[in-house]
Amino acid sequence: MLGFLEILILSALAIAVAFVVIVRRRRPRALSTAGHTAPNDPRCGKCGYIVRGVPSLHCPECGSDLREVGIVTPAHRRAAGPFPHAVIWTLVLLLVAVPVAGLLIQALPHWRQYTTSRVVFLQHPELNVILRATATAQGIGRAGPRQDAPAPRTVTLASDKGGFRSDLEFEPATGAHRYTDASGARVDRPGGFGPDVIAAWLTANNAPSNTMAPAALRARAADVETCVTEMTAGRGSTFTHLGRETPGGVQTVTAHPTFAHSRPTAWNTVALIVLGLVVWWLGVSVIYRRHGVAVPEGAASAGATLAGKT
After folding, report:
1. Are 122 and 106 in contact (CB under 8 A)?
2. Is the Cβ–Cβ distance between 51 and 43 less than 8 Å?
3. Less Cβ crowding at N or C end of the chain, within 10 Å?
4. 192 found inside a domain
5. Rounded Cα distance, 292 and 278, in Å
């Protein structure tokens, strides 16, 4: 999957190529009235059309008054038009914008996708599974290896090794939960999440043995809930050991430290690309105005559309 900088670079290159194509397609042909090229003939000072033999004082190609725009002769060629300057501006903006955008993403708070996960080992003689709890949330924050993630909206419990019929999804704020039971029916309730729900989900996936006592299964389910609650509450930065009440004091439930990471959402990329396009279009407009030439129609309409969206 492409990262933020790769997307930004490809977008900027696509803009530069599109601009070159638009301008090249709209450049007037340097033909004489006879229909053949003549590089040494006098040309219109605005569009470059050869005006040798033109019966009027207006350019047949662009309609400009030759007394105002001038006639360029081989001995007095006009300086390069706006196109080379626009290309240079595009390349300079590309070289500056990509690293600057990367620095802004690292330094400034912005909308990010947070993912928090924790692995829970159940090593009871009659219930030996590895579960992974994953929580997702979105919020404003900075980039970094560890972040205080916002309260998650949903949490998913799944078998870390696969093989379960379904995952268990629940909402910490409301207790709503969803999973598939042993008969294949979908369980979707608006509240009531707790150890009993976790135990039912484990049973539906044939995790505990048939001889495991319901009280022991519920105790292990309560341990799982404790480990998940630590993760969603911003705790769980160290190992958690539970289940010592079993014979021999064996730690039947062990939760690894919570792992959290975040990444920019796609909207940050879109916003930076749109901002870069607006800045690029404004710069091109200034360049063309200083040369007394209108911005190519395709580029102008695209730039106006982007400016209207920001």
Report:
1. no
2. yes
3. N
4. yes
5. 21
Identity of the residue numbered 80: A
Question: What is the number of residues in the chain?
Answer: 310
Q: Which residues contact 236 (CB under 8 A, 6 or more apart)?
A: 118, 227, 230, 255, 257, 258
- Cα(115)–Cα(110) distance, integer angstroms: 16
C-alpha 151/C-alpha 74 separation (Å) is: 72
Task: Indicate whether 279 and 191 sit together in one domain.
Answer: no
Q: Which helix (H) or strand (E) holds 170?
A: strand 168-170
Residue 219's identity, in one-letter code, is A
Cα(204)–Cα(179) distance, integer angstroms? 9
Instruction: List the structure tokens of 247.
Output: 């014979």
Number of domain units in the chain: 2
Which residue has tokens 């001038």?
A: 70
Provide the domain limits for residue 282.
4-36+79-107+267-309
- Same domain (yes/no): 139, 225: yes
Task: Give 129: exposed, middle or buried? Use CB within 10 Å, 0-12, 13-18, 19+.
Answer: buried
Is 48 domain-assigned? no
